[in-house]
Amino acid sequence: MAHVYQPDAIDLRLLQALQIDGRAPFSRIAEVLGVSDQTIARRFRRLRNETRLRVLGMADHSRLGRANWIVRLRCTPDAAESLADALARRPDTSYIGLMSGGTEVMCAMKPKSRQDRDELLLDQIPRTRRVTSVDASCVLSHFYGGPLGWLNKIDTLDSAQEAALRPDAPTAAEAPVDLEPLDEAVLELLRHDGRATVTELAAATGQTEAVIKRRVRRLRATGVLYFHVEYDHEPFGHGTEAVLWLKVDPSRLRAVGQTLAGHREVRFAAAVSGRANVVVSVLCRTTEELFAYLADQVGAIEGVQDVEAVPTLREVKALIYTPRR
Fold first, then answer.
1. Residues forming a β-bridge with 189
2. What tens digit of pLDDT does each residue of 292-321 get?
3. Segment 148-203, tens digit of pLDDT
4. What's the domain range around 256?
5. What is the tally of structural domains in the chain?
6. Do the domain assignments include residue 68?
7. Three-state DSSP class for residue 6
8. Cβ atoms within 10 Å, residue 176
9. 286 within some domain
């Protein structure tokens, strides 16, 4: 009989601790959770092997004055997987999903400049063979997501434990943060491994450890750097993912977004440009739970005029690209 991984309460607490502070030493996590350092190290290795756990350092583009885009690409059925794989290899995409029906690819992209955006949206994608339509939406305002991960909602840690793990809040910034080439290099390294040691970062950049410590500290203090915990959801009982495109009364946009942000099922919610002016990523246990969420919660929100629910067949890229074997 095939081995079936069964995560327990300690695993869940470890995941939430890593979401709160992705670079927290195992010794500090162990102290807060009341277990040994060896237990945390062993659980981390097991989660990495069994659920492909990774802690990723991400750049908050809103702190950099950069716009994010969500693109829906429709194509012929024989082209969807190859298109998704090609987009996933790009460093400026953070999420790629093959959606229900097998003819739609959803892409979240974070271009560093207007020129990069235009090259992709106006030149490269429209010229791609077998792409039948492109619908690009600019993210106007985040309601949930980014530094606020879904694991913040699982409530396995009490308030005292969360406070003991939570780093200092980023300073408020009136103007976008300017990055130097070294900052970009550090962010790129942390994008692949958010727990890379200062020694490893120093060796990869040719800088001293003191310089790297200061750079990482500044990136965190300004809110540019945050951490995302990536892992397979199915072993934890969540096997149904979907993207909801909502048409919302403009006067109710902020209120609807705040309501959605409080829902346990919501991983990401944002106001976007386009006819569907709110996009939501949800995670449920079953299709029946997804139906109940749509009927009982989303359907009851004042101001929601229309909902298109698109189940995710497969995540091709969830922040970091892992080629299919």
1. none
2. 999 999 999 999 999 999 999 888 887 543
3. 888 889 899 999 999 999 988 787 667 889 999 999 999 999 999 999 999 999 99
4. 143-153+233-312
5. 1
6. no
7. coil
8. 14
9. yes
